[in-house]
């Protein structure tokens, strides 16, 4: 395993890491707070629970489809362009949501915010950091980015709930739009890596990289298992606040649960990055799927109280974005960082197909049956299958570079 030195942490890497962490934190905090708007919009007869769930499903599908393209653009031209475009998409999407109605929710909260998140999430930002970091510190830098990026939910979710209670849900969306606009200024801090294609650095080639990755058994299995990650997490992010409200708990518990997911996420992601360097990426990924599914099964089997909800949120937060270090480590070690955005985008498309179904079927099952029981059982079944599939793929030795 390579040893790092102080010289590996260059000014360009540190500045870009701070910028990427800030943008990721804002983007994830904004997106994961949208579930707080389901209850006030449904109570105001603006949309139904099923409509809101379908809009969040569209958002995740747009995120997944847009991710390979945003990653490829970033691989070739750098991150400033895609982040500035994302901030504009975010503001427009939140504005359309505030306008009310199903169409505004589908186009704004679904399509535009989905594309915005694709341009401000791990596929783009981890790629920026990976290309600037030397092999000795790359895994650590990615783990720090993923950990810092999770802290946004800890701040944004309670702030969004406070704005909803103090103003209106429309005013709260306007406040979130101002936060989204601030990403344009942060993007100017990004530094570019050395010109690609020079000094032995491979030039990005999206088509060739995709063809090569799809011939790799471990990449294909990890991509299939990634479906469960999206299915589980987006169901919870979208429907947990409404589920808690149905069980008779106050809305503040839902906001606090999302915030707790964010803060515990930082710790879990750092630990996952450390374990990947000792145990290998695949085994850590399989354990994450298994522990996440056991946490869901336990929460579903127990009475829903403030205590059980917050313990569940802490457990899920610990495992929420902890998949990023093993997934990014696998891509970087097997294929290198030159085409990271493209390959992460391909893998992430599977994640977002699962996210689409998790958000949509969660709302649909509630609309049909009046409960979320079918949805919780589906989370357990899909997660169990993913853990088994990832364990079956075998283990990978920790990368030497």
Give a structural overview.
This protein is an all-alpha fold. It has one domain (12-190, 212-392): Growth Hormone, Chain: A (Up-down Bundle), CATH 1.20.1250.20. The protein has 18 helices and no strands. The protein has helices spanning 11-32, 38-43, 49-77, 79-99, 102-119, 122-132, 135-149, 151-166, 169-181, 183-187, 206-214, 217-246, 251-279, 281-301, 306-320, 324-335, 340-369, 373-392. The protein is globular and about 55 Å long. Mean pLDDT is 86; it is low at 396-401.
Helix content: over 70%
**Rg measurement, Å:** 20 Å
Biggest sheet architecture: none
Mean pLDDT: 86
H/E element string?
Answer: HHHHHHHHHHHHHHHHHH
The appropriate CATH architecture is Up-down Bundle
- State the distance separating the first and last CA atoms: 7 Å
Annotation, overall tally of beta strands: 0
Number of domains: 1
Low-confidence stretches: 396-401
- Provide the structure class: mainly alpha
CATH homologous superfamily placement: MFS general substrate transporter like domains
How many helices? The count is 18
């Amino acid at each position: 395993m390579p040893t790092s030195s102080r010289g590996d942490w260059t000014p360009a890497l540190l500045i870009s890491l701070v910028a990427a962490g800030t943008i990721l934190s804002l983007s994830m905090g904004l997106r994961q707070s949208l579930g707080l708007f389901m209850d006030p919009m449904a109570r105001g007869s603006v949309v139904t629970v099923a409509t809101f769930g379908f809009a969040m499903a569209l958002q995740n599908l747009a995120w997944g489809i847009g991710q390979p393209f945003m990653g490829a653009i970033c691989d070739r031209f750098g991150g400033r362009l895609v982040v500035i475009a994302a901030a504009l998409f975010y503001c427009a999407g939140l504005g359309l949501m505030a306008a009310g109605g199903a169409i505004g929710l589908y186009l704004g909260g679904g399509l535009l915010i989905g594309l915005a998140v694709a341009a401000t999430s791990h596929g783009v930002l981890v790629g920026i950091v990976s290309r600037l970091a030397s092999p000795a510190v790359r895994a650590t830098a990615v783990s720090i980015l993923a950990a810092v990026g999770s802290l946004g939910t800890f701040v944004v979710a309670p702030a969004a709930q406070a704005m909803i209670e103090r103003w209106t849900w429309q005013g709260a969306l306007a406040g979130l739009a101002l936060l989204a606009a601030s990403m344009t200024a942060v993007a100017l801090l990004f530094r570019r890596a050395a010109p690609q294609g020079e000094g032995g650095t491979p030039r990005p080639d999206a088509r060739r990289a995709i063809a090569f990755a799809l011939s790799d058994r471990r990449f294909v299995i990890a991509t299939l298992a990634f479906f469960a990650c999206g299915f589980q997490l987006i169901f919870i992010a979208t429907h947990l606040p409404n589920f808690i409200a149905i069980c008779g708990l106050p809305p503040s518990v839902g906001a606090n649960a999302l915030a707790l997911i964010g803060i515990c996420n930082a710790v879990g992601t750092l630990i996952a990055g450390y374990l990947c360097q000792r145990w290998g990426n695949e085994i850590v990924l399989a354990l994450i799927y298994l522990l996440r599914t056991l946490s869901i099964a336990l929460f579903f089997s127990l009475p829903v109280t403030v205590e059980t909800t917050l313990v569940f949120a802490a457990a899920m937060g610990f495992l929420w974005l902890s998949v990023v270090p093993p997934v990014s480590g696998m891509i970087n070690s097997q294929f290198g960082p030159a085409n990271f955005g493209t390959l992460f985008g391909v893998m992430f498309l599977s994640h977002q197909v699962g996210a689409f179904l998790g958000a949509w079927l969660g709302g649909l099952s509630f609309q049909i049956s009046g409960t979320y029981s079918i949805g919780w059982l589906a989370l357990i079944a899909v997660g169990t299958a993913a853990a088994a599939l990832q364990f079956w793929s075998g283990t990978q030795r920790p990368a030497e570079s």
